[in-house]
Structure formats: C-alpha cells, structure tokens
C-alpha cells in the first residue's frame, strides 16, 4: 500500500481549520486498515513535514432515508496528524 492509498482526502471543516490554526493539527480521511505508523510515514512523504503525533478515529456511517427506502453510508476512518511547529502543509492554506 503506497501513500496515495493510505491518505484518501483532507477533511476541511470549521473544526479542522481551527485545529490547523491553533495547534498545527491536520485532519485526513484514511484507509480503514491503515495504522498510525503508516499514516505518519505517508504524510511525511507526501507533504515533506515532520509528524509529531497521530490520532485515529473510526467514524460510523450515517443512516439515511429516501422516502421508504433506508440505507447507510459507509464507515470510514479519520486521522488527526500533529506536525512540528515550523512545518505547514500548504495544501490547506488555499491558493
């Protein structure tokens, strides 16, 4: 599994933007079977930063209905990555 298979997409919300500005932490959706070590190596290789800590959360997919048909979105995994204070991930900075 390479780094592009591990890091699926960045999560850009109000809460993740606040975490980025205050504590230099970034949120990503990651592969369900990726562990903390693989996530840290993938972020370091993709964005050329020094990773200090990784926290992972297994998110349960939401239940949805359309009329009488009920379904469920897939479960997914979120990683919160803390990078060193001198490093920034420019992907989140815009333009």
Notes on the structure:
With 95 residues, the protein is an alpha+beta fold. The protein has a single domain (3-83), classed as 2-Layer Sandwich (Alpha-Beta Plaits), CATH 3.30.70. The chain has 3 helices and 6 strands; from the N terminus they run αβαβαββββ. The protein has helices at residues 3-6, 14-23, 36-47, and strands spanning 7-10, 25-30, 51-59, 63-66, 69-72, 76-83. It has a 4-stranded antiparallel β-sheet. Strand 4 and strand 5 (69-72) form a beta hairpin. The relative contact order is 0.25.
Keywords:
globular, alpha+beta, Alpha-Beta Plaits, 6 strands, 95 residues, two-stranded antiparallel ribbon
CATH homologous superfamily placement: RRM (RNA recognition motif) domain
Number of domains: 1
Sequence of strands across the biggest β-sheet = 1-2-6-3
Shape type: globular
Count of individual beta strands:
6
Helical segment count: 3
Low-confidence stretches: none
Query: Mean pLDDT score, rounded?
Result: 94
Return the CATH class: Alpha Beta
Percent range for β-strand residues:
35-45%
SSE sequence, one letter per element:
HEHEHEEEE
Calculate the terminal CA-CA distance, rounded to whole Å.
30 Å
Structural class of the helices, strands and pairings?
A: alpha+beta
The major β-sheet equals:
4 strands, antiparallel
Round the Cα radius of gyration to an integer and report it: 15 Å
Residues in helix, %: 25-40%
CATH topology: Alpha-Beta Plaits
CATH architecture tag: 2-Layer Sandwich
């Amino acid at each position: 599994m390479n780094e592009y298979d591990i890091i699926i997409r960045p999560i850009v919300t109000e809460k993740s933007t606040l975490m980025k500005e205050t504590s230099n932490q970034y949120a990503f959706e990651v592969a369900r079977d990726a562990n903390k070590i693989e996530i840290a190596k993938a972020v370091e290789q993709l964005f050329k930063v020094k990773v200090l800590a990784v926290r992972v959360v297994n998110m349960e997919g939401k239940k949805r209905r359309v009329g009488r048909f009920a379904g469920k979105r897939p479960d997914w995994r979120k990683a919160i990555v803390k990078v060193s204070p001198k490093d920034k991930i420019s992907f989140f900075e815009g333009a």
